[in-house]
Amino acid sequence: MGEAKSGDTVKVHYTGKFEDGTVFDSTEGREPLEFTLGKGQLISGFEKALIGMNPGESKTSEISQDEAYGPRNEEMKQVVERSQLPPDLDPQVGMQLQVNTPEGQTLIVTIAEVTDANVTLDANHPLAGKDLSFDIQLVEIV
C-alpha cells in the first residue's frame, strides 16, 4: 500500500501524554481513529507525524504547543457577573459550559475562577499551552 500521504484516509491507534507521562487520551480498548490526512481534522503536528509512515509502523512523536492547540491566550478569559449565569447553576472551577457569542457562535468554556460576585470563563482549549507526546500506530491506509 505504501507510505501515508496527504489525502489518504488512515486508521490509527494513539496514546496522548503530557511531558510528565500522564495520559490525557487514548484509543486503547476502542476502535482506531479514522480520518483523512491534510483536511485539518486533527492538530497539525499529529498529521505531520503520520506522513511517511507505513501500515503497522509505530512511533512516538513530540508535538510542541505551536503544532498542537497553540499557546494560551489570556484575552480568551472573561469575567462575568454570577447574575448572568442561570440561577440554578452552581458554578465550580473546572466545569465546562456552552455559551453563545454575540456573533452567534457556540463556544465551550471552562470555569477558571469563582468568587461571590463573579465567574471567570476561559475559552482556551484545555490543552492550549502544552507540549504533547503521542505514541502512534498506523493501523491501516483505507
Describe the protein's architecture and organization.
It is a single chain. The protein is mainly beta. The chain has two domains: 9-70 and 128-141, Chitinase A, domain 3 (Roll); 74-122, Thrombin, subunit H (Beta Barrel), CATH 2.40.10. The protein contains one helix and nine strands. It has one helix at 44-50; strands spanning 9-18, 23-26, 33-36, 58-63, 77-81, 96-100, 106-114, 118-122, 132-141. Strands 1, 2, 3, 4 and 9 form a five-stranded antiparallel beta sheet that branches. A hairpin with a 3-residue loop joins strand 7 and strand 8 (118-122). The longest helix is centred in the first third of the chain and has 7 residues, at 44-50. The radius of gyration is 19 Å and the shape is elongated.
Q: What share of the residues lie within helices?
A: under 10%
Query: Element order, helices and strands?
Result: EEEHEEEEEE
Distance between the termini: 9 Å
Indicate the mean pLDDT: 94
The number of strands is 9
The name of the CATH architecture of the largest domain is Roll
Radius of gyration from CA coordinates: 19 Å
Taken as a percent bin, the fraction of beta residues is: 35-45%
Largest sheet descriptor: 5 strands, antiparallel
Instruction: Give the domain tally.
Output: 2
> Which stretches are poorly predicted, pLDDT < 50 over at least 5 residues?
none
Question: What is the CATH fold-level name of the largest domain?
Answer: Chitinase A, domain 3
CATH C-level label of the largest domain: Alpha Beta
Give the CA-based shape.
elongated
* Helix segment tally: 1
Q: Which structural class matches the secondary elements?
A: mainly beta
